[in-house]
């Protein structure tokens, strides 16, 4: 048995918002005691007070969360500057939280530490991991999401899918916060592991398509892109954007070998030497193309992500839906941002508690039994239930 | 008491309403702030997308132009390749034919040399025997009846008179065979594929000998084709074997043209005029016929591979294109055609007497 409830408030006042969220959860729980929770909160709230308030009401829950760039839930649909809390109650599904700190300095040990904290409490094998890693850690510096994911994969084993999204800060690109229990952290990686009688499925889709001609990365190191086709990364972008600086929506499609499969890499910051820092690593000699999308394609890919998850779902009933969508999708969708949530809500065979947020990087495997990837511009659906 | 409760309830209700209103105001304020920021971001994104699409379209246009250019280059390359392939095929054919002809010429040359070499001795021996017979007849004027009968039977007096002519004729025939063999060897020049100093006039004469049977009087040309040779050239640096191929292509074309002309005008005296001269350190070879000439349209395509005005199966359409390449590319020379329909055609070959070193 797994019971999931959701509370959501768009009251900008922190006290007002958490009171409203807790009230909604209390009513839906119908006296049941939650064991774990995930909180998605806009950046301007008083996060410390909110966490304390949740733990005051439910002192024993395993709680993680993060700041966002937009929130969604089955209570209010798509919102900005809001607060949404999902609570899990179950005596057959084991849910444990863990956190790793100094994620940018030592991603591997932060990931290992988070997994150790979560798994030390378990009695059943971990089947699923939800991770909400840091992205911006202050003054625009970022942690390496791929390294954190790799660390989690090493600590959990390749058979455990890692799904989630990187914390956001409403496009301020300064500092994001992660929550673990009553702690408000930055440069951290909180996780929630699921074991026991849990059933889940997931899907990921992007909606960005390559534009322009193919080029070769002639110089790159880690997440720093120096040269494309022998010209500096900035000059490459200037060919398309003129004097404007590349933004997250002008991402690159990076092709895998000679195939037509590609993944997305997003420009993050411009360096003085004409190079560009991306939000994840990029390999030298890879073929790249600039990408473009339309709002219809973005919405369509959200549905594709959900349908993939639904097709692979083997449980009796969907008890919870978690959505992780890239912040760039929200910017580009503008007034149609709410359609991402609505299309999923309409595609659900019956109503189910849903919670999600707009993130700075999405985590999900590309295939059912494959390793997890650090995605960008992507929409990830996670369906959870029991046998 | 009831009034107090009523007032208290009303106050609570008002307080709740105020709280709700305050919350609504907070939400609206936040939404307004956010809406403004989002609108700016969206406008920015829209401008960037416009720029992006404009530049992608420009890039596509550039790519299209590049592709068109590349397509043209490929088309030219394909044409060149086809011409080269044809040249190779023709060259292989000519090379194989050259080897064959040279082999045959060599094989004929040896036995003919025996014949030619021994004819002189055979003639002397026969003359000696005739002298001996004359001596016998002088000293024994009355031979026995059997000898008298044999002398009459073999027509000895005719043999004496004809034998000299016979040997002269055999000698002339052998010399002619030797000349033909020599011409064949000169023409094929299998051993002369490199640049060397050669006598162009000799090459032309050899070529004329090769096509001699088409120049002789025949049913098509009851009077034969008259060949007028003018001028001489010093030896020049050239690829003699290749030049002979050019001469034969042009001369055979002239003969074909004259065949057509004679059919239309049986009174015509078909003539090929070949003139060689040195002009400004350049060898100029003119080969002209008095046939029907070449139309302007055909002139514009004369050197195009596969272009032919001959009936199907008669011409490959390669002769002149190969000739052009031999003159233009191999000898850095010129091959021109001057013709006015009805007034014959003249092909002019101009090549430097010394080839530039690579």
Q: Which residues of chain A sit in consecutive blocks of at least 5 with pLDDT less than 50?
A: none
Helix content of chain A: 10-25%
Based on secondary structure, the structural category of chain B is: alpha+beta
Globally, the shape of chain A reads: globular
How many strands, what sense, and barrel or not for the largest sheet of chain A? 8 strands, antiparallel
| Alpha-carbon distance between the two ends of chain A | 9 Å
Number of domains of chain A: 2
* Main sheet strand line-up of chain B: 2-4-5-7-6
Gyration radius from CA atoms of chain A, angstroms? 20 Å
Task: Characterise the protein shown here.
The complex is a heterodimer of chains A (387) and B (358). With 387 residues, chain A is an alpha+beta fold. Chain A folds into 2 domains: 2-205 and 298-385, no CATH class; 209-292, Thrombin, subunit H (Beta Barrel). Chain A is 25% helix and 39% strand. Chain A is built from 8 helices and 28 strands. In chain A, the strands form 5 sheets. In chain A, strands 16, 17, 18, 19, 20, 21, 22 and 23 form an 8-stranded antiparallel beta sheet that branches. Chain A has a 6-stranded mixed beta sheet with strand order 1-6-2-3-12-13. Chain A has a 6-stranded mixed beta sheet with strand order 5-4-25-24-28-15. The longest helix of chain A is centred in the C-terminal third of the chain and has 17 residues, at 295-311. The radius of gyration of chain A is 20 Å and the shape is globular. Chain A starts with a strand and ends with a strand. Chain B is α+β, with helices and mostly antiparallel strands and 358 residues long. Chain B has a domain at 195-358: Heat Shock Protein 90. In chain B, helix 4 (200-210) crosses helix 6. In chain B, the strands form 2 sheets. A 5-stranded mixed beta sheet of chain B has the order 2-4-5-7-6. A two-stranded antiparallel ribbon of chain B has the order 1-3. The model of chain B has no long low-confidence stretch (mean pLDDT 84). Chain B contains 8 helices and 7 strands, in the order H-H-H-E-H-H-E-E-H-E-E-H-H-E-E. Chain B has helices at residues 2-139, 145-154, 156-188, 200-210, 212-215, 240-264, 296-301, 319-330; strands at residues 196-198, 226-230, 236-238, 271-279, 282-289, 334-339, 345-352. In chain B, strand 4 and strand 5 (282-289) form a beta hairpin. The longest helix of chain B has 138 residues, at 2-139. The A-B interface holds A 10-13, 16, 80-81, 171, 211-213, 239-242, 244, 247, 249-250, 290, 292, 331-332, 334 and B 23, 26-27, 29-31, 34, 38, 41-42, 44-45, 47-49, 51-53, 55-56, 59-60, 63.
